[in-house]
Amino acid sequence: MTQDIHTAPLPDIDSEKCAVPEAGLMGRIVDKVSYVFAAGIVLAAGILLLEVFLRYALNRPTIWAHETTVFLCGSAFVFGGLFCTCRNTHIRVVLLYDLFPPRIRRIADVLISLVSALASGFFAYAAFHMVSRAVFAPSGAIRLETTGSAWSPPTPALIKIFVFITMVLLVVQFVILAWNYARRGAKD
């Protein structure tokens, strides 16, 4: 029997999804910090609304609105990978996984987490090279890469640094997940 969408019960606020237990303390911290990035997206929307008003109602556009919103949204999207990992809500193909018995699923969870940690490590390595070019001048002096616009903020360097940090945190999170999945399997 199907339930009509209009009569479906509303979800309980207490049943809101949060970090999986295997994500550990780091997962709980990432889950709490995510509200900062959610607020950043709301702030970006507000900035865009302000820019539309200033540009079309007052004919006084800003030079900072576009780059600020790109930075805020880009940071949120980068953080989203870490957020989805701690909640175990990332995209996956479960065609075979769903057919596995629980013991094989735990082994698959460990292997998937280890392979993901390795892949994240490669991305962190690549991000490190991006950061080194975005932060250091050829002479070795610290010089943050800027956008080159009239405002020219250092957001390209900042987002590259954030990508690097997030990739390192992803490596750590996947190792924590692999360890806790393996420990859970050893208890069964």
Give descriptors for this structure:
188 residues, mainly alpha
Description of the structure:
By secondary structure, this protein is an all-alpha fold. It has one domain (17-92, 100-187). The protein is 65% helix and 0% strand. The chain has helices at 24-56, 65-87, 102-135, 155-187. Helix 1 (24-56) runs antiparallel to helix 2 and helix 2 (65-87) runs parallel beside helix 4.
Radius of gyration: 21 Å
Total DSSP E strands: 0
Through-space gap between termini? 36 Å
Q: What is the number of domains? A: 1
Q: How much helicity do the residues have?
A: 55-70%
**Pattern of helices and strands:** HHHH
Structural class: mainly alpha
Strand content: under 5%
List unreliable stretches of 5+ residues: 1-15
Number of helices: 4
Overall morphology:
globular
Mean of the pLDDT scores? Answer: 90
- How would a crystallographer describe the biggest sheet? none
Family: Belongs to the TRAP transporter small permease family.
Subcellular location: Cell inner membrane
Pfam families: DctQ (PF04290)
Subunit structure: The complex comprises the extracytoplasmic solute receptor protein and the two transmembrane proteins.
Please write out the topology.
Layout: H1 24-56, H2 65-87, H3 102-135, H4 155-187
Task: Characterize this entry briefly.
The protein has 188 residues and is mostly helical.
